[in-house]
Specification:
The structure is a single chain. By secondary structure, this protein is mainly beta. The chain contains 3 helices and 32 strands. The chain has a 16-stranded antiparallel β-sheet that branches. A 5-stranded antiparallel β-sheet has the order 3-2-5-6-8, with no helix packed on it. Strand 9 and strand 10 form a beta hairpin. The relative contact order is 0.11. The N terminus is likely disordered.
Length: about 575
């Protein structure tokens, strides 16, 4: 906390260490004092500066006594009705105070304020509302809250809360502490940390932080969060003493968080132990692209990235004749698929007719993924099953041995870490994080269509790109692509496709440009040139089945690249 410069201190600084034996001069700056109802304390009440005495503890007020039964003493007192105030903000001075023979250097100091007492009545009744504050740390600025050396001409104490006021720019003291939240004769004292703390995300997207066994008389609980391994705690909010839980809807997906509670009142503050949780995340259960199977640069090429530490079962299919079952007549006659690890010139695995090899493995992977069964074991469709480990990049090249320039469908499925086989995305050791398909963008049935499934319980941030002009090293690219995202609505008859978003040129929405650039850097996607006619959609996608269509403006055709990046 730092004090605003409008407080005039320069003239006094030069005499801070001067001596005036037998006396001391105090000032107390307080921000936003309140009564027992939380109303600004203006033009009424009494403020006391108290010393704890030799026993080092504060006795606290009792019926008929400001200082109670111990050896506390009143160092200075102020009639707030006679002091200048700005909505409960006071700067009060004691004048020269004789140094009592019972005082000792280092005795603790505190302030008490009684909203309903006056100079004519300084005898508190049972239950009389009062506030108490002592600073046990460096927070709040000013001098230490202890009796200074005899003869110190100025000892300045400050009490500012997090509420806005003209005296300070910031403070970590909860505003609730400015209220007179205690009662004479009632329980008071330092807070106690909770016996237990716990977290859950039973409501997806919101982490609930709960605690038991804490107490904070006249104070509040501050909830703080940090990412695991970090050192900086973020204050999420403050709740009143009777609360036992706090909901945090500001969590990211798949993040490792730690939470703690700080019980804080005018006596002290104490932090709880930490409760850890990984927030829920979703995953890409598959990627599929439908397009014309040509040859050379116009072949359908799909790339994908897996990220993790363990194995993942992947099913890759290339369908042509199978598409006749969904009404496509100009299908590829005999698709083939070859899978290349990053940088390889020869495929690790390849397949022409799916029923000839890996029949058992393919059927197993189909059953554990969102893939649909082939209707004919003797069909000319292609498929392969493999189980890579760790973080890797692969390229699948799909051609048509029949050279029919027909429509084909290439698909990649996660057969390990999806809800289809009872595995939550958070428990998966590996997952699909990026998929891209390059192919020919035609018109009508020959537009390039990508589909994917977001699997999980929470939204997932996705960066979707449809590139043409920015594809390096190729000629014949689509000059001005546009992409439109659809989600299948399974709640309506016929499962219609609902348009979610569309984009022509990636900078069309100026409010999203900065976020698109930041997200591109986060996922490792090259930032597009300003002014390019490529398309981008950045969206928080709810779990479900999606497709996005890439076409050329004004029926433009050419080679295009569709990309899906998982950004959380």
């Amino acid at each position: 906390m730092r004090t605003k410069k409008l407080i005039t201190t320069g003239a006094l600084t030069s005499i801070l260490v001067a001596k005036a034996w037998g006396s001391v001069f105090f000032t107390v700056d307080v921000g936003s004092l309140q009564d027992e109802n939380g109303i600004a304390l203006v033009d009424k009440g009494m403020l006391y500066l108290i010393s704890s005495g030799a026993d080092g503890s504060f006795s606290l007020p009792t019926e008929g006594s400001i200082t109670g039964a111990g050896d506390d003493s009143i160092v200075a007192a102020w009639d707030l009705s006679a002091e200048a105030s700005t909505q409960g903000e006071y700067i009060v001075s004691s004048g020269k105070v004789a140094y009592d023979e019972t005082w000792a250097l280092g005795d603790d100091l505190a302030i008490l304020w009684f909203p309903n007492l006056a100079v004519s009545n300084q005898s508190p009744a049972a239950g009389e509302a009062y506030g108490f504050y002592r600073n046990t740390s460096v927070r709040g600025g000013g001098d230490v809250w202890e009796l200074p050396e005899d003869g110190t001409l100025l000892h300045s104490l400050k009490f500012f809360t997090e509420g806005d006021n003209p005296l300070v720019e910031s403070s970590d003291v909860p505003a609730l502490l400015a209220a007179a939240g205690l009662g004479v004769g009632e329980s008071a004292g330092p807070p106690t940390a909770p016996a237990t703390v716990a977290t859950n995300e039973d409501n997806p997207g919101t982490i609930a932080f709960e605690w038991e066994g804490a107490s904070v008389p006249g104070g509040a609980y501050r909830i703080e969060r940090k990412q695991a391994g970090g050192s900086d705690w973020t204050v999420l909010g403050t709740v009143e003493a009777g609360e036992t839980s706090f909901d945090d809807p500001t969590v990211g997906r798949g993040k490792d968080y730690e939470y703690r509670l700080v019980a804080i009142n005018g006596f002290d503050s104490v932090a709880s132990s930490e409760a850890s949780i990984q927030s829920l995340q979703s995953s890409l259960a598959n990627i599929a692209t439908r397009g014309v199977l040509k040859s050379g640069a116009e072949a359908l090429i799909l790339g994908f990235v897996i990220k993790g530490t363990g194995p993942i079962d992947i099913l890759a299919t290339a369908k042509g004749p199978e598409l006749a079952n969904v009404g496509i007549t100009n299908f590829a006659l005999d698709p083939t698929i070859a899978l290349f690890p990053f940088g390889a010139t020869a495929p690790d695995v390849e397949n022409d007719d799916w029923g000839n090899t890996q029949l058992t493995e393919i059927n197993d992977f189909v059953g554990r993924s969102f893939a649909t069964n082939f209707t004919d074991q003797a069909s000319k469709d292609a498929a392969l099953a493999f189980s890579p480990e760790g973080t890797q990049l692969f390229t699948a090249i799909v051609n048509d041995s029949g050279n029919a320039d027909g429509v084909g469908l290439v698909e990649v499925f996660d057969a390990t870490g999806t809800s289809r086989n009872g595995v939550a995305p958070n428990d998966a050791q590996n997952r699909l994080v990026n998929v891209a398909t390059r192919g020919f963008v035609g018109t009508g049935d020959e537009v390039l269509i990508a589909g994917f499934i977001v699997d999980g319980q929470v939204d997932s941030k996705l960066l979707l790109r449809g590139l043409g002009p920015s594809i390096a090293g190729l000629t014949g690219t689509v000059e001005d692509p546009t992409i439109t995202l659809f989600r299948t609505d399974f709640t309506q008859p016929g499962f219609p496709q609902i348009e979610v978003a569309t984009n022509d040129n990636w900078e069309d929405d100026a409010t999203k440009v900065d976020e698109i650039i930041a997200t591109s850097g986060q996922v490792g996607a090259a930032v597009l040139d300003s002014g390019s006619k490529d398309s981008i959609i950045l969206i928080d996608a709810v779990p479900g089945l999606y497709s996005f269509v890439m076409s050329g403006v004004s029926d433009g055709t050419g080679i295009g690249l569709v990309e899906v990046f998982l950004a959380d």
